Amino acid sequence: MGERRGCEGEAVELPDQAPTPTGVKVCPSVRGASNWMSSSYNPDTHLLYVPTLEQCGNVVTSTKMPEPGKFYMRAINPKTGARRWEYRVTGPATMWAGAVSTAGGVLFFGDDDGQLVALDAKTGKHLWHYNMGQKLTASPMTLSLDGKQYVSIASATDVLTFGLFEAAVSVPVVKESVTP
To answer: Does residue 178 form part of some domain?
Structure first.
């Protein structure tokens, strides 16, 4: 029976990828693909949402600073690896805030401009964003209290929480009568 490599989650070493003094091109780079930012799987949409950075790197035997690249939020089918949609995020991917998806079909994540961003989880359509005025230092999280849903995110020294309540309802204007 042949050797099974990479089938049980272990790393598979690729030939000719060891660093050299002149360098070897690898894709993704150390900062590329999905690294520290948390991903989120939504059982309702059956999608995995992954903040990713398209960036290759030249791996050398000495240290070298990475070059800025492109930063995306991607929805991936975890069964096939197929990309369902992608949303271009401001770059150059200096912040590492992750993502969280909700049962209500909203995906939240932080971008390089210090914004908490909300997308439609099925389509990737931009729904909303809020500029926190500072760097985002953590992944967003959601919680429910007394039947109401909230999303929170750490932003430098602050933690901001937003209520995800019922949709706005139009209220009719009542005209007051003026008595002479």
So the answer is: no
